[in-house]
Amino acid sequence: MLGFFVVSTGFTQEPLQSSTIELSMMDECIDDMFNNCIKEMEEQVQKIYFPRELKNENFKMAWDLSEDCAKQRLQRMQRKYSGLTINHTRAICVYTEEEPNMYVPLNAALRRGAAKYNTTDFQYHALYFWLTTALQILKSSNTAYRKTWDVYNGQVNQTIRFGYFASSSLKPDLSGFGNTTCFHIKTQLGAYIEDHSAVKGEDEVLIPSYEKFKIIKIVPDSYGELNCTKSLCWRV
After folding, report:
1. What mean pLDDT, rounded, does the chain reach?
2. CA distance 160 to 232
3. Residue 226 has what pLDDT?
4. Which pLDDT belongs to residue 16?
5. pLDDT at residue 224 above 80?
6. What are the DSSP calls for 154-221, one per residue?
7. How many other CB atoms sit within 10 Å of the CB of residue 53?
8. For range 141-156, the mean pLDDT
9. 3-235, superfamily in CATH?
10. What is the pLDDT of residue 235?
11. Domain ranges in the chain?
12. Most buried by CB count within 10 Å: which residue of 4, 16, 76, 149?
């Protein structure tokens, strides 16, 4: 099913820098959904990727710091989501924790990492696998809002993907995330992670790199409760 959004020019965990971004299918991004191979990939992650990637100092620090965060959240949520494991909740805690920052290098590696995905040049197989499969367990249909400092260009009826883990929120009025381009998004594959996140109060919905959206409207100013310079309405 294709999601949708409205783009209003103007939520993201991106640096406060303005740039112009052309919306596209992000053909060079890593978009593995692990269809029909989750068990096999779990074994590879445990035996090969995770031990190797723990040699990354920042990832090891983030993983070690995530233990308390993850245990507290897992105890509350495991009855509701039987497939959820401690590694899933640790991955969400690692991703959402401000320090050490892991979401920026992970997303940078995802955007254009397809050619490196099956090599040691991609250093986040474990984090990507556990975060992706966590979102697949937690996914639900949500209307979410994403605010950015950047200028996004796209066309009505265009099908696009973010190509990385895109943060959005159930709240249209969050401040501090930008108001240059805003997205009013209907997501089918994103997951509400507030109950698992290291950061509280943002009502975050995290959208995976592979979810496709169709732009159904572009508004040159604010859209509904989105107070932005430019708004996009995306439908997927």
Report:
1. 88
2. 12
3. 76
4. 46
5. no
6. --TT-EEE--S-EEEES-TT--SS-SSEEEEEEESS-EE-TTT-SS-SS-EEEEPTT-EEEEEEEESS
7. 19
8. 91
9. Toxin ADP-ribosyltransferase; Chain A, domain 1 (3.90.176.10)
10. 58
11. 3-235
12. 4
